């Protein structure tokens, strides 16, 4: 039975390792991949109508740029090795959005790359990997 694997992908070296790991698993087991790119967007801002309009315009431009420069090349690369792949591009909190994508897609697993950040920021605000480990509705694989 074919399963879906959601791969958190931001174009970093760590996300390439995660995609490579997931592609190997998917190819061996006949699974498919949903490559997910999440652009962080804070809902905690207070903007005027003019600022909101400018923000929405920038948002559309960011989505188009991310789809063309980040997602399309990896979708083409993974498709070329015979693995079924689709792409999802969303705004939001990264860990929460990956969990929602996994639920919406009926995924069996989430795969992300470890960024290796252990500084003060991740201690205060938490990391994506830490949040996914606590909140994900499906098993999470963190690729070193």
Automatic annotation (TrEMBL):
Q: Which Gene3D superfamilies match?
A: HUPs (3.40.50.620)
What are the residue boundaries of the UspA domain, all occurrences included?
1-144
State the family named in the UniProt similarity comment for this chain. Belongs to the universal stress protein A family.
UniProt protein name: Universal stress protein
């Amino acid at each position: 039975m074919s399963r879906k694997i959601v791969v958190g992908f931001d174009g970093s070296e760590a996300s390439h390792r995660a995609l490579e790991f997931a592609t190997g698993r998917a190819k061996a087991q006949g699974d498919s991949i949903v490559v997910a790119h999440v652009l962080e967007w804070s809902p905690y801002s207070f903007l005027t109508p003019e600022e909101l309009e400018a923000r929405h315009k920038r948002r559309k431009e960011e989505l188009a740029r991310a789809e063309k420069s980040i997602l399309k090349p990896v979708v083409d690369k993974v498709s070329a090795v015979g693995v079924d792949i689709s792409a999802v591009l969303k705004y939001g909190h990264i860990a929460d959005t990956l969990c929602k994508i996994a639920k919406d897609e009926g995924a069996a697993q989430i795969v992300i790359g470890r960024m290796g950040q252990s500084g003060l920021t991740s201690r205060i605000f938490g990391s994506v990997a830490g949040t996914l480990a606590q909140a994900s509705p499906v098993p999470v694989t963190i690729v070193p």
